[in-house]
Design brief:
By secondary structure, this protein is an alpha+beta fold. Helix content is 45%, strand content 12%. The chain has a seven-stranded antiparallel sheet with strand order 17-14-16-15-20-21-19, sandwiched between helices. A hairpin with a 5-residue loop joins strand 8 and strand 9. The protein binds flavin-adenine dinucleotide and iron/sulfur cluster (2 copies).
Length: 1019
């Protein structure tokens, strides 16, 4: 039995007092002090880990002011803060040991839009893609781009002066900030915008905190103007820290204090709101993907492409391309970057042309493609081919692939993982190829593995060398390389932090700014934050402060991870490998990742949150001498050393409020829908349901399980029995009394009723068919030719017993297509046991089912299932649980079989179906939507996939009373509106859970696509 885990760092008294005072003063947002909440924001995408004292989440600007006002009280002068947005920093930018002020959960409203004057006013927690989705129908977009656009916030972008693809034309974030509303420690509101110098000078005369700031910035930037112009490299990128140069316009007539805040990494003030300039969308885009025989060829050829007056030029090396090939994303881009026969593609340049009128870029494109044709024909410049596309959706998918590249690099096998620490160097573009060659020599000298891509037009290179931070010696290597890269970028006239900000690299600031200008930064910091309390240690410290800057050598995540035994880390590698890139915080309600985060907006309830909490749990267990693997093995062997009495006692203590960190992990795991979107959508394939089941198994070796778990875990045994008398059970289940009793005793709601007539009754009536009366011997006696015509339906408990019409229609469709359907006897699949962490029982169930299915596979019988999540369980969970014992059997999803089957001649149907795909199916089998479209096209009918996220039911999740509210909200986020606007007969859903959820929420049960096909073929 696992022990109670209590070794969590306590919150310092001064912080508890501060939070208490905040609460007393009517703070409306959340104040989170649980260890799990604190831990969930202790990392970003960097190598660092820093546990904050608490997380506060202001509801609005008044709340934010309250935080800063209370902080202004003398007794709280030692309390420190760090503002946080999406937490996607690559160098610990938002990490702190003080209080995290998370702007993303509530302060994410778009406040005002003015199409005539091209601006929008937003709260700082708005996500960049959220803003662009709002602007799109108006014909505008917020132009600075970044790879993390689906989760990074405007506040984060402003504070790191984010930019990315297209920056030569579209600029950086700071180029688009018209005005800011900032809150200073103490509660003062500092509004900034461009103003005549005289106005700034008048403000500087005020005897106030704001007056002092104007005074200092004016004098620092004016007195040192010459040094500033001489010192800063003439790059497209700005060296974050305080932008001393651009507070003035070129002729020194205008002043914008906001320019020192953009790029200040949260070290000056809290940005509450921003007024941003927006850009009209150029409706015509053309992308030319130029393919090369080497990465060096791609780099050396980049200036030639830039000269073609392209909007942007991006480069990707073969390593990144090959990783993309292995990812779900490749499905959508493979036709746009096809291989060149007989050649190996070692790099590509992605050249984009944008235009308001198509004709505007035609001449440029033709000129470039003519030149490319000549280079290919003459075998010059290492160009082996190119492809052009003007299809906007295709262009978007290419960029999605490019944006996912960093994450994909993180998925490298082994203990050395690609790390961010020198990942965004910038040098003048004309120096880039030579710089990269020398950079490569440097990394090769250490024998490191790495992939490269970047914005070659702006001279920005992204590279993450693979190192293992659990090895202290490699920490030293990280420091050595950092120092060398600083020197190398300086040699080529560039910067180490060309795009992502400094964070823990702040210690190199003086080297780049020079002592004289760095002193000015410190004076500015002192004017804003004299006691070094806002994101302390980042960028610089106040001028008279003796406090230190954060350092590259500061405590890293590896320090904690190395406390977990290697074998344990290997066995729970997907939790260990999460690199915090935050892709699972995807803002878009129509994306499957991650429903529990979307509905709660609580970082604990995300794949990253769960992976982090699991890692910490393993660490704490290890520190108590417990080996997770050994505990697990013992349980799987049935060697459980805990008694029901001990579990009862522990549960009693738990209910009485006894602390155990395991409860915090449990809370996060309990909210997971086990939808598995993370296991395919996360670039690292962090498989939460996999480690969640293992956690549950161990947790319940110490605590008693709730009754509902037993109900779910045994559903595959009880459903077939109940299905023998469906009317009797339905009669009881339909009574309010029984529903109420189930809810109060088991915590289960809206229990579904059993199908009547039963599946057996329905298929018994299917014409001449004899689909039931088959046993293995009868199949064996078929000739090989006969067997090729047999299609065996593998039953699942949900569709067969609760949605029998679907299976019956499936049988009929198979028959109609000229095959012999066989309904295999129901054999439990085990998925519900897995979800609830009954892993020993699951292993037995899986073994029995695999043996049965392998017999049929040996006879070369085609097997098809119906429900995606159960069919996919045979592929994933079975492989993990049984290893080689799983055998080779294959159960196809309906579309996987139908796509290769001949259909009768197509007719022309007027009806247009809408497909609401099951999220596990869409994410694990990305071609499924397209396949269904093609299948319907074969019949002559149109089917369009609808972009939706999770339906919120996810097996039994939505039936559990404790999840009901979230389940319903998840449905409303992307399904509700879309379903209710459609005629019921066109709505098709592949998942049993999805159909049940629509029935519960919208009052009708959609058909499965096989049912629609049957109807079409029968009409
Ligand atoms: C895989 C990956 C790819 C990336 N690609 C790019 C890229 O293409 N281009 C690019 O520019 N960056 C990139 N980044 C870095 C990162 O996404 C950006 O720096 C982004 O702007 C951070 O936004 P955020 O909301 O996550 O901010 P956070 O990480 O939460 O914070 C970043 C900094 O801003 C401060 N901050 C946040 N909100 C506020 C506020 N309201 N008021 C005051 N200070 C605040 C924080 O204190 C911190 O110093 C990438 C990161 C990853 C993980
Ligand atoms: S779980 Fe995956 S997507 Fe989320 S932060 Fe970790 S690695 Fe990124
Ligand atoms: S399984 Fe689904 S709900 Fe659970 S963490 Fe993964 S994406 Fe989120």
């Amino acid at each position: 039995m696992i022990p109670r885990l209590t070794q969590v760092d306590a919150i310092e008294k001064i912080y508890l007092d501060f939070l208490d005072e905040l609460q007393q003063n009517g703070f409306k947002g959340e104040i989170e002090t649980s260890y799990a909440s604190r831990f969930s924001v202790s990392t970003d995408n960097s190598v660092y880990q820093s546990l904050p004292q608490a997380v506060v989440l202001p509801k609005d600007i008044a709340d934010l002011q309250l935080v800063t006002k209370v902080a202004g009280k003398a007794e709280f002068a030692a309390v420190k803060f760090s503002p946080r947005g999406g937490g996607t920093g690559t160098n610990g930018q938002s990490l702190t040991q003080g209080i995290v002020v998370d702007m993303s959960r509530h302060m994410n409203q778009i406040l005002e839009f003015n199409a005539e004057e091209n601006w929008v006013r937003v709260q700082s927690g708005v996500v960049k893609d959220q803003l662009n989705a709002f602007l799109k129908p108006h014909g505008f977009f917020f132009a600075p781009d970044l790879s993390t656009s689906n989760r990074a916030t405007i506040g984060g972008m402003i504070n790191t002066d984010a930019s990315g693809q297209g920056s030569l034309v579209y600029g950086k974030t700071s180029d688009h900030v018209l005005a800011l509303k900032n809150i200073l420690l103490g509660g003062d509101v500092l509004e900034t915008a461009k103003m005549p110098i005289a106005e700034a000078e008048a403000l500087a005369k005020q005897d106030s905190s704001i007056g002092k700031i104007y005074q200092q910035v004016l004098s620092s930037c004016r007195d040192k103007r010459q040094q500033i112009l001489e010192k800063f490299p003439r790059l497209n990128r700005f060296l974050t820290g305080y932008d001393l140069e651009h507070v003035f316009n070129d002729d020194l007539t205008e002043f914008d204090l906001g320019r020192v805040i953009t790029g200040s990494e949260g070290s000056l003030a809290f940005v509450a709101e921003a007024k941003l300039n927006v850009t009209p969308i150029a409706p015509f885009k053309t992308l030319i993907n130029v393919k090369y025989d080497s990465f060096e060829s791609a780099l050396r050829n980049a200036p030639f492409l830039v000269q073609a007056n392209a909007t942007s030029v991006e480069t990707i090396d073969s390593k990144v391309l090959n990783l993309a090939r292995e990812d779900i994303i490749w499905e959508s881009v493979k036709h746009l970057i096809t291989d060149v026969p007989g050649k190996t593609m070692e790099g590509i340049n992605i050249v984009e042309f944008n235009a308001v009128e198509a004709a505007d870029s035609e001449a440029k494109i033709t000129a470039l493609t003519d030149k490319l044709d000549a280079l290919v024909a003459n075998k010059q410049a290492g160009i082996i081919g190119y492809q052009v596309t003007a299809d906007l959706a295709s262009i978007q998918t290419i960029y999605e692939m490019r944006k996912k590249a960093v994450g994909l690099l993180g998925n490298t096998k082994g203990t050395k993982k690609p790390l961010a620490f020198a990942e965004d160097t910038a040098v003048p573009p004309e120096n880039l190829a030579d710089f990269i060659m020398e950079f490569r020599d440097l990394l090769d000298g250490y024998g490191l593995n790495y992939g490269m891509f970047g914005h070659v037009d702006a001279g920005v290179l992204h590279v993450r060398p693979a190192l293992d931070m659990c090895d202290p010696e490699q920490e030293v290597t990280l420091r050595k390389i950092s120092d060398q890269v600083v020197a190398l970028t300086a040699k080529y006239g560039g910067l180490m932090w060309g795009e992502h900000g400094k964070g823990y690299r702040s210690e190199y600031g003086p080297e780049f700014f020079g002592d004289e200008l760095f002193l000015e930064l410190r004076k500015i910091k002192a004017a804003f934050d004299p006691l070094n309390r806002v994101n302390p240690g980042k960028i610089c410290t106040p001028v008279d402060s003796s406090e230190k800057l954060v350092s590259v050598d500061d405590t890293k995540r590896g320090f904690y991870d190395r406390q977990i035994p290697v074998k344990v880390k290997e066995s729970v590698e997907t939790a260990m490998n999460c690199n915090g890139n935050g892709l699972c915080f995807n803002w878009d309600a129509n994306s499957p990742m991650c429903p529990s985060y979307k509905v709660t907006r609580d970082r604990r309830h995300s794949p990253k949150g769960r992976a982090g909490l699991m890692r910490e749990w393993l660490r704490q267990l290890s520190n108590q001498g417990i080996d997770f693997n050994n505990e697990e093995k013992a349980l799987l062997k049935g060697e459980d050393d805990s008694s029901w009495f001990a579990r009862w006692q522990n549960t009693k203590n738990k209910n009485a409020g006894e602390y155990d960190y395991s409860h915090e992990v449990m809370e996060a795991m309990d909210e997971c829908l086990a939808c598995k979107a993370c296991s395919s959508q996360c670039p690292i394939k962090v498989d939460v349901p996999g480690f969640r089941a293992r956690f549950l198994q161990l947790y319940y070796s110490r605590y008693s399980r709730p009754l509902k778990d037993y109900l779910v875990g045994s559903i595959e045994n009880s459903a077939p029995l109940m299905a023998k008398a469906p009317r009797l059970f339905n009669f009881f289940l339909n009574t309010k009394l029984v529903q109420g009793a189930i809810k109060s005793t088991l915590g289960y709601v809206d229990t579904p009723t059993l199908s009547y007539p039963t599946l057996k009754q329905q298929v018994a009536k299917v014409g001449e068919l004899n689909v039931l009366d088959w046993d293995i011997n009868r199949i064996r006696n078929l000739t090989e030719a006969q067997r090729l015509k047999v299609v065996a339906i593998v039953q699942d408990p949900f569709t067969s017993f609760y949605d029998a019409d679907v299976v019956a229609d499936w049988v009929k469709l198979i028959s109609k297509l000229g095959y012999t359907p066989i309904l295999l006897p129901f054999v439990p699949n085990g998925k519900p046991q897995h979800v609830k962490g009954f892993l020993k029982r699951f292993a037995n169930t899986a073994k029995t089912a695999a043996e049965f299915l392998n017999q049929l596979a040996d006879l070369n019988i085609t097997m098809v299932g119906t429900d995606p999540s159960l069919v996919l369980c045979y592929r994933d969970e079975y492989t993990k649980a049984l290893g080689e014992d799983r055998g080779e059997f294959e159960v196809l999803l309906p579309h996987e079989w139908l796509k290769d089957v001949a259909f009768p001649e197509a007719k022309q149907y007027k009806i247009e179906f809408k497909l609401f795909g099951h999220c596990s199916e869409k994410t694990a089998v990305p071609a499924s939507q397209k396949d269904w479209q093609n299948i319907f096209a074969k019949v002559g009918a149109k089917l369009t996939p609808v972009a939706v996220g999770c339906c919120g039911m996810a097996g039994t999740y939505g039936h559990e009373a404790s999840h009901l509210e979230n389940s319903q909200q998840i449905y409303q986020m992307s399904w509700g509106d879309k379903v209710s606007k459609l005629p019921q007969e066109v709505v098709l859903a592949t998942g049993y859970s999805c159909r049940s959820q629509v029935k519960r929420e919208d009052g009708f049960k959609p058909k499965h696509p096989v049912q629609a096909l049957l109807k079409l073929l029968s009409s």
